[in-house]
Design a protein that fits this description.
It is built from four helices and no strands. By secondary structure, the chain is an all-alpha fold.
Length: about 160
């Protein structure tokens, strides 16, 4: 059942953000640019972001015993895999995918969408997610906050 819920929420949330919205943008042909062959450089961020996103979703299901949806969050804190490097790898993977799509599809509108999504993620993390996780996981999460950076994988 957890696998089906994870699949459903993956299609609904990241699927909409990285699939449906970019498709709607490109289908309207707004704010396009032309970089010729260099557009294929967009494959690399997508090739990094997509497996990373899948890895995080699997970690949420297997370790956290939950999904990426706020209505069915993990019951246990996930601190392994990509979560050892940054606190929000799933969001970073989504933004990476969007930036890759903006280059591959040569769309300024998708690039703007990627920046907007990144800003929304940041506000969501700062004002909802981290305070909520502090309440749910207490001291363990506070230690995690001190040990692992929010966005950039830098050593502390």
């Amino acid at each position: 059942m957890l696998v089906l819920k994870s699949l459903f929420f993956t299609l609904v949330f990241p699927g909409t953000v990285t699939g449906l919205v970019p498709w709607l943008i490109v289908s309207r042909g707004i704010w396009m640019f032309d970089v010729g062959f260099y557009r294929y450089g967009g494959i690399f961020p997508i090739a990094l972001g997509l497996p990373g996103l899948i890895w995080c979703i699997v970690e949420f299901a297997c370790v956290g015993r939950g999904t990426l949806a706020t209505i069915d969050p993990p019951r246990f804190a996930v601190r392994r895999g990509l979560y050892r490097v940054v606190r929000n790898p799933m969001y970073l993977c989504v933004v990476k995918i969007l930036l890759g799509e903006s280059l591959l599809l040569q769309s300024w509108a998708i690039a703007l969408w990627a920046v907007s999504v990144a800003m929304i993620f940041h506000l969501f993390v700062v004002f909802y997610e981290e305070p909520n996780l502090r309440r749910r996981f207490g001291r363990e999460y506070e230690e995690y906050l001190r040990a692992v950076p929010r966005w950039l994988p830098i050593r502390r």
